[in-house]
Amino acid sequence: DSLSRLFSRCGHVQSVDICDKPGPGEKKDKLASKFFDHKTLKGFQVAYVVFRKPAAVQAAKALSQEGPLLISTESHPVKTGISKWIASYEASIVDPKELKAEVDAYMQDYDKKVAEEEAKAAMEEGVPDEEGWVKVTRKGRKPGLPRTEAANLRVLEKEKQKRARKELLNFYAWQHRETKREHIAQLRKKFEEDKQRIALMRAQRKFRPY
Known about the structure:
Strand order of the largest sheet: 1-2
Largest sheet: 2 strands, antiparallel
Oligomer: single chain
Number of helices: 6
Helix content: 40-55%
Number of strands: 2
Structural class: mainly alpha
C-alpha cells in the first residue's frame, strides 16, 4: 500500500509484487487462501511496481532527483515497534468461523471434482478407444474404499506394526537377560568346581600355585 501510494504520483499503479529475491518478471499467482500456504518474507526484499502506462516508468526514474521518498509520514504513518507487534499478533489470530467456511468450501469443490472424475471414468469403463483398447480402472474391478475407512485401515495397520516391533524388542531383551543369567550361572559353577579341585589338591599335597 505504501509503495502504491508513493509511486501513484507518476501514474496509475496496476500492481506491486514483493519477492524475497530478484527473479523473472513473471507475476506470481495470488494465494487462494490466507490461512494456508502463506509465507512471511523477512529481511531485505525486492518490489516490482507495474504501471498501467509506459510513460509512468520514465516519471518514476525522475523521482531520484527529488530526494528520498518517505514511506512513513504524519498523514500516512507506518506502524513500528510495539504497535507493529501488537497488530501482527492480532492479525495472526484465526477466526474459527471464517476458517471453517473456507475449509467447507474447499471440500465441496474437491468432492465435486472427484464426483466428476468418477462419473467420467464410469462412462469410459468398457468403452474401446479409437485403436480398440479398453481402459480398465481400479473402480471397475474393485471399488475403492471411502477416504475415512481407508485412513482408519492405515492407522490400524501402523498400530499393528508398532505392536509387533515392540513385542520383538521385548523378546530380544528377555533373551538377552536369559543369556546373561546362564553365563553367570556357568561362571559360578566353574568357580565352585575350581574351589573343590584346589581343596582336593591341597589335601593330596600336590597344590603348586607357582
